[in-house]
Design brief:
Strand order of the largest sheet: 1-8-5-6
Helix content: 25-40%
Amino acid sequence: LKQEEILTTIDYSFLIGASDYERTLINKAAVRLGDVADCVTGFYSGDNKTFIRGKNLLEQNEIFTLPIDKKYINGIISDTDIYIPIYKGKAFIEKEKNDFVKWDSNTVKFYKTDSKARFQNSKYYFRLGIGVPMVKSKKIEAFYIKDALFDQSVVGVFPKNEKYIKYIIGFLNSEVGNRLVQIINHTSNNSANYLKKLPLIIEEDKIPEIEAILDDYSETKNKSTTQKELDRVFNSI
């Protein structure tokens, strides 16, 4: 790569392996993911071994079953241990709630004051969004965040307009979305700042088609067919 090429690349990145078209798309994008969505790092308890439990290790009365919203941001008033779902790791579009974090009001006070804990970006807690695993793999798998907390092993992507949530989760799970992430980011982590740089072409007339593909997946759980359909649509875009 010529030095001149690096100096004209977004954030002076080495877009290794990019074709001329991909390089132009990344550098000249009119819209990036960071323009239409907030990309933020999630919560850390400070001591996951103490505060996070698998579903199979909890009694039913320890799991908070009501819809979780902003009124529980400072914890749940409870005389006993109480846990809420937290998303960790990766999943394709939909993720089971298998991990739970202790969330009584006294424990939340600890999270806010402990030097190791990270009660960060709390205005995004319990909002509808998209989770992208922080640890990078050959294929990105993004999933819905809903009625739950998200761990710092996940980057939360929260569209500024919720009508684009299915479009964006479809893009992130597509072959072309994955390809662009791999070009932009050669490290082992998908940080929020890398995801913000992703070029995003929004074709409004494609939204119903992408929504239908994702709705079909919710019914069938056919990952192979859904992947092929998302790749077909986003490759054409």
